[in-house]
Structure formats: C-alpha cells, structure tokens
Write a structure and sequence with these properties.
Keywords: Transferase. InterPro entries: Methyltransf_25, Nucleotide-diphossugar_trans, SAM-dependent_MTases_sf, Trfase_1_rSAM/seldom-assoc. One of its GO terms (molecular function) is transferase activity. By secondary structure, the chain is an alpha/beta fold. The chain contains 14 helices and 18 strands. It has two domains: about 200 residues, Spore Coat Polysaccharide Biosynthesis Protein SpsA, Chain A, CATH 3.90.550; about 180 residues, 3-Layer(aba) Sandwich (Rossmann fold), CATH 3.40.50. It is about 35% helix and about 25% strand. A hairpin with an 8-residue loop joins β15 and β16. It is elongated, with a radius of gyration of 25 Å. The two termini are about 45 Å apart. The relative contact order is 0.10.
C-alpha cells in the first residue's frame, strides 16, 4: 500500500498566503490558495496510489472534491504536524505541500517510486525549504525538531535523515509560492493551471476577475471568442470551450442530430442559436431557451426565436414539443442531470424525444465542480455533471426514461432518449 498526501490549510481569508498581502487582499490571497490546492489535488488524483490523503488544518469544503480522504492535522509546529501526518497514514507516503501548483503527476509518481528503493525522498524548494518529503516508514525522529520555514530547512532535513540512516533520494527542485514575486514566477511558468489562470485574472481584474459569476465569463467568451477559454473540472481535467464553433454554422455532427429532431423542437441551452436557426431554415418550428442574456441577444440579432430564462421557468408551448435538444454539454449544467431530464421530458408531448450530447465512453460519470477560465477572467466554481456514453443509461433510467440509441459523429457522442 502506498499513499500520496497533501498537507494544507483550508483557504480561509486571513489564514493562508498572508505573505501575498499586500498587494493581494486576504480574499484574493485565499482565492489563489484555493487554486493552488485544486491543482495539487488534481495532480494527486491523476497519480497511481492506494490512498490519496489531505492532511488539513481547518474545515474541508466543496473545494476538496471527490476521491480524497481528509485527516485533520495534529501537533504544534509544522515539524510535529508532518510527523503526525506520517504516523496517521502509517504506510509508505510521499507528502507535498500546497505551495507548488505546478507539480505534475510524473513528479508525484517519481516520489512514490523512490520509496521502493530508498527509505526516504525529498524535493527541495528554491528558497531553501522543501516542497515534498517521503518516508517508507513513519519515524517521528526524522521530523521533530527540524527547523521549518528557513532558508536552511531542506539542508537540515537531509542532515537529519542521513543521521538516522534514511539517506533520501533527491527529486528535482521546484519554486514554491511564498511571496508575490514567486507567485508571479510560478504562475507564468504554469500558465494553464488553475493557479496560473487565477493569478492572470488577479493581475488584470483583481478579485472580480478571479471569482467572477460564470455568466459573466460566458458572456465575455461569446463577445470575444478566443481559443484560450477552458472548462476546468475539479478532477483536474481541462476541456476547451469552443465559442467560435458555437458562434458559427452548424457542423455535420450537428446536422446528424437535427435530422433526428421532429418538430416542433425545443433547444435547451441554445446559446447563440445555431441549432434553432438551422432548423428554421429547414422549415422546422423551433424555440431556443437560454438563461444567458448575452446569448439571447446574439441569437435574436440573428433572427432566432429564443426564450430568455431557465428551462425550469414557465416555458411557452409546454406539453406540445415533440423533440428537445440538450447539446454542447448542457446535460451537465447544474450537476443534476436526472431532474433536468425529467423537467425537459415534462415539456414534451407523449412519445417525445430528447437528443443529448454526452462524453465519449470510458470516462468518468458523476457530479463534479467546474469553472470557466478565459485569457484574463476566471469564474467561481459551480456544480457540474460529467455524463459518459457508457454511464448515461443509468441516469436516463433514474429519470424514468428509456435510452433508445447511442451514436457518434465527428468524434462527438450523442444519445436519443424516449421521454
């Protein structure tokens, strides 16, 4: 059995990353800390280990995500807390802090592998501390009394390990986030991490850019489409947000779906309205529904019929629609696809059909958190669901419906559901 552990403080304003203040406010520093923890936990999830553990000072929140075991820190100083962490886990453990959001699964795997041939492992930080330490067996003597948070901490730690006959394998040195200059350096070297995106947003817009409403980031993407837009899941997965495709004409894959949609058609989460417009051009009565004012303005400017609001609002023609569309990831919005399917089904006439886009087979199906990230703007986290082609049948059944067919076109996967 092996364990990967992260020792961290809960990202509470005034308790974390205080050396970033000023120029950051405590709220901004906490937002950067949460992004750094998110990156670190994502790397841990992507690394093979029997246990994945967060050794936490503070209360866990939604930011922890799934698949992580949480153990409270114990002890006075950091040396005692590290010793306690290894004792509480009780098996070969490679432990990292929360100050290196650039850490990769490859580095973490190297740390675990080092413990197969060495009694200990260490990764030094550029400031004289260390970003990681691993022990094959817990040994309080290896950590208690080692001076922490100094420019000779790593040297003192290695000396202690050698004295105990635990000479460590040294891993590559990393720069850790200690002050605003090191934060900027790490962010620029890892620009596509959650931390890198959050720091860029802070430099441009302050806290408003780091914790923006998702609707604001979505509107910016529609108004200024750019390939840098991403949907980041708390699992660490990052997906492109194809605003340019959504703003363009329908694709062959879109047409494959639209040919199956008998009118009248309700397009739920229609965005700029490309599907509704394509259906109208084919003489099919269609209505779009979208909660984004920016998307509705764009759709209407193109002559598309759109209702502005939530699908859970009072929708025109309820009970009369023959088909409904849930494309471009809309099945995952809100993190609860079953109630969404039931609501859409209630808007259809008897024998109606829902056509939904899903993920390719072989991936994760379940609830997650997500956020939108633009070139200089990052949203706050929101509820999301990932639904794979091989996991959708159970979700459809739980919604009281029947899966008719799965099909793939142009690398995109879809399902046809009998509502």
């Amino acid at each position: 059995m092996t364990a990967l552990a992260v020792i961290a403080k809960a990202p509470v304003p005034g308790r974390v990353k205080t050396r970033l203040c000023p120029p950051c406010t405590p709220v901004e520093a906490a937002a950067l800390a949460e992004a750094a923890i998110a990156d670190t936990l994502a790397a841990v999830r992507a690394t093979g280990a029997d246990r994945r553990v967060l050794i936490l000072d503070g209360d866990p929140g939604a930011w922890v995500g799934d698949g992580i075991e949480v153990i409270p820190q114990r002890g006075a100083g950091l040396d005692e807390r590290l010793a306690g962490a290894f004792e509480d886990i009780g098996e070969p453990t490679f432990l990292v802090g929360m100050d290196t959001p650039q850490v990769t699964p490859e580095l973490l795997a190297a740390g675990l592998q080092a413990l197969e041939s060495h009694p200990a492992a260490i990764g030094r930080a550029h400031d004289g501390g260390y970003w990681a330490i691993g022990l094959r067996r817990p040994d309080r003597r290896a950590l208690e009394g080692v001076p922490m948070s100094r420019d000779d901490t790593a040297a003192a730690q290695v000396e202690r390990l050698v004295e105990l006959g635990l000479a460590p394998l040294e891993l590559p040195a990393l720069e850790d986030v200690d002050d605003i200059d090191s934060a900027r350096s790490v962010a620029r070297g890892a620009a596509d991490t959650a931390f890198g995106r959050a720091f860029a947003a802070w430099e441009r817009h302050g806290v408003r850019g780091m914790n923006a409403p998702p609707a604001r980031v979505y509107a910016h993407g529609l108004e200024r489409p750019h390939p840098a837009y991403r949907l980041r899941l708390d699992s660490g997965a990052v997906r492109p947000v194809p605003f340019e495709r959504w703003l363009g004409a329908v694709s062959p894959a879109d047409l494959e779906v639209l040919e199956r949609a008998a009118g009248p058609v309700l397009d739920v989460g229609c965005g700029p309205g490309r599907h509704v417009r394509a259906l109208a051009e084919r003489g099919v009565l269609a209505l779009g529904v979208d909660a984004s004012s920016a998307a509705v303005r764009l759709a209407r400017s193109r002559g598309t019929s759109v209702f502005e609001g939530s699908v859970f609002d009072e929708i025109p023609g309820a009970g009369e629609w023959r088909s409904a569309l849930l494309l471009d990831g809309n099945l995952g919005i809100g993190g609860r696809p079953e109630p969404l399917l039931r609501r859409v089904g209630a808007l259809l006439r008897d024998g109606g059909t829902i056509l939904a886009e899903v993920d390719a087979p072989g991936g994760f199906t379940g609830r997650q958190r997500a956020r939108l990230e633009g070139p200089n703007l990052v949203s706050r986290w929101f509820a999301w669901a990932t639904v794979g082609a091989d996991g959708v049948e159970q979700i459809v059944a739980d919604a009281g419906m029947r899966l008719r067919e799965r099909f793939c076109h142009g690398g995109r996967w879809f399902v046809e559901v009998a509502a």
